[in-house]
Write a structure and sequence with these properties.
This protein is an alpha+beta fold. The protein contains twelve helices and 31 strands.
């Protein structure tokens, strides 16, 4: 780690509570430096968390590079920018409406990137952002404020300027808290002020565009987890509005009438402007010989499905998801490519084929520190890494299922299809047995085989399924643990399967682990940006024809991937992702 004595402080930019924010130089590079001097800060409790976040790259967030205790204060060095304004001074400079929309989009994207990687902020305000020379907002105080306030010894002395008070302790509550504070900041950017709180509800100004005022109102005045789904919707609407603003600048006659009427004159002369828009539309159609108007495919590469599809549909195109793109440099779930390509001209109503990224072609193996075995396997699957096998190590000093090491080691690049071996400790007096082979079996029969060989399953059954036309019976193409791995008969870990089977899929009760009893079943179904939650009072209700029909309708009517998750009393029992 660089010696922070080498940081040259050039100028103090602002102060906020205990914090000082400086512009500086380190090893000839521009940096920003956060400094805090507080006897109430527990450096040791925060240091480990800081270390895990070093060099962590998140969109629209300046990366933490170095930190250390230095001359009685704690300094945190983040990437610097040569030309910038604080967000507060930028708002006071009276930017154009188009510039405001661009800033709102980058502010929202920083929060979405933060939440997508499992982090929260909890202390977002105007001082959390600067504006670079290209007109993008960059978050500057993550993870400094979060780590500082979570490690302060005297919690009762913590102050927060948020209208929502102090952040809650649970992760979901913190995400909702972040989302509400970002919504207030968006309104401040667009209108120059924060909406008043009347009778416990925020009253949004009428000057806000109606295309996204509804989403902002819902975020501020509702407290359910559903408000988290509003962020990608809000980004999509803001970016579409910004495109319209650009079209207006370019002088398109049709766009001039439609945008100008909706934004400025609609409250006073809606009927007159509607007639004018219709007249302009017919005039253009007449000049073009009543042919359909060509439109260019907008750039949706690297965007989420909900945002990208909204942009494509706003241009009048139909969208068809072809499948996954394996060789991609985008995170899983982002749009990897389109056909026709971005910028191509198509007539409205024509089809645009879309491929979704299955994750980076080369994945970085995450560290297993602070994870138990089951949680670490889940972390691997999130990175699109399916573990290969378990190598058992018997020891007198370690507990069963404790992770010893990985091969390759954490931080290594792993191409899809490469093996990864988990070296796992078991106690010396734990009896180990060969794990059976599920070749030529289906999942239900595999569970029966385990029972027959005295293996006890305490975990869940997790699967990925490829539904194909030319397959009649389920075929297991991957199992974890692997055949002949040496394991105890008590299996607390989840069982993983990848299977191929017929498109006429039907749910098999035999795939539920034996510990599932009669009652308290919850089913979560996710497809695209939608999510449904179904509840069954009794487990055998899963055999109902209506349940299977609802499943099949979702699988046939929606593009893959579709995931189905079954839990009992809050414990995961069975899950499957359909590709």
């Amino acid at each position: 780690m660089q010696n922070l004595a080498e940081v040259k402080i050039i100028k103090e930019l602002f102060r906020e509570h205990q914090f000082r924010f400086y512009k500086g130089l380190l090893a000839g590079k521009r940096v920003f430096v956060w400094a805090v001097r507080s006897p109430d800060f527990s450096w040791r409790s925060a240091e480990k968390s800081f270390r895990e976040l070093l060099d962590k790259s998140i969109p629209n967030i300046l990366t933490l590079r170095h930190f250390a205790s230095y001359r009685g204060e704690y300094r945190f060095v983040i990437d610097g920018i040569s030309e910038f304004k604080t967000l507060k001074s930028w708002i006071n400079s009276k930017p154009s409406y188009s510039e405001k929309l661009k800033i709102c989009s980058s502010v929202l994207r920083s929060l979405m990137g933060l939440h997508s990687q499992g982090f929260t902020h909890c202390w977002i305000n105007e001082d959390s952002f600067i504006v670079d020379s290209e007109g993008n907002a960059r978050m500057i105080d993550f993870p400094i404020k979060n780590m500082y306030y979570s490690s302060v010894l005297k919690k009762d002395q913590i102050k927060n300027d948020s209208l929502f008070g102090l952040p809650p302790g649970d992760k979901i509550g913190q995400k909702i808290f972040d989302t509400k504070n970002i919504a207030l900041l968006i309104i401040r950017i667009l209108t120059g002020s924060v909406p008043p709180l009347i009778g416990g509800k925020f009253l949004l100004p009428r000057s806000l565009n109606r295309d996204f005022s509804g989403s902002l109102k819902r975020i501020l005045n509702e407290n359910s987890e559903d408000v988290l789904q509003s962020i990608p919707v809000l980004i999509g609407r803001i970016e579409m509005m910004n495109e319209e603003e650009d079209s207006l600048k370019k002088g398109s006659l049709f766009n001039y009438f439609s945008i100008f009427s909706r934004k400025y004159l609609e409250p006073f002369s809606r009927i007159l402007l509607t007639i004018a828009s219709i007249w302009a539309s017919f005039e253009i159609l007449y000049l073009l010989g009543f042919s359909q108007i060509d439109s260019r495919i907008p750039n949706v590469i690297g965007q989420t499905e909900s945002i990208g599809f909204s942009k494509l549909k706003s241009k009048g195109f139909d969208v068809n998801v072809v499948g996954f793109e394996d060789k991609s440099n985008f995170d899983k779930g982002l749009i990897a490519r389109t056909d026709p390509t971005v910028g191509s001209s198509l007539k409205k109503g024509q089809l645009v084929n879309v491929w979704i990224s299955s994750g980076y072609f080369e994945n970085i193996i995450p560290d297993f520190i602070d994870f138990n075995f089951n949680d670490y396997v889940s972390e691997l699957i999130k990175s699109n890494i399916w573990p290969s096998r378990i190598k058992s190590i018997q020891s007198s000093q370690n507990l069963d299922w404790e992770i010893a090491s990985l091969d390759p080691a954490p931080g290594s690049k792993l191409k899809q299809g490469d093996d990864i071996v988990l070296n796992i400790y078991f106690l010396e007096d734990t009896s180990l047995f060969k794990f059976p082979d599920f070749k030529n079996l289906n999942i239900s029969n595999s569970l029966q085989l385990l029972k027959g060989e005295n293996f006890e399953i305490n975990g869940a059954v997790r699967t990925k399924r490829y539904l194909e036309d030319d397959i009649n019976q389920q075929k297991i193409i991957y199992q974890f643990p692997e055949h002949q791995n040496m394991l105890p008969t008590l299996l607390d870990n989840d069982l993983l399967f990848i299977v191929k089977e017929s498109k006429n899929w039907s749910f098999d009760m035999g795939e539920l682990p034996p510990w599932v009893n009669d009652g308290g079943i919850e089913i979560v179904v996710k497809y695209g940006s939608e999510m449904e939650i179904w509840n069954e009072v009794i487990t055998r209700g899963l055999k109902k024809v209506s349940f299977q029909a609802r499943m099949n309708n979702i699988l046939s009517d929606n593009k893959k991937p579709v995931s189905i998750i079954i839990s009992q009393d809050g414990k995961l029992a069975w899950s499957s992702q359909f590709e």
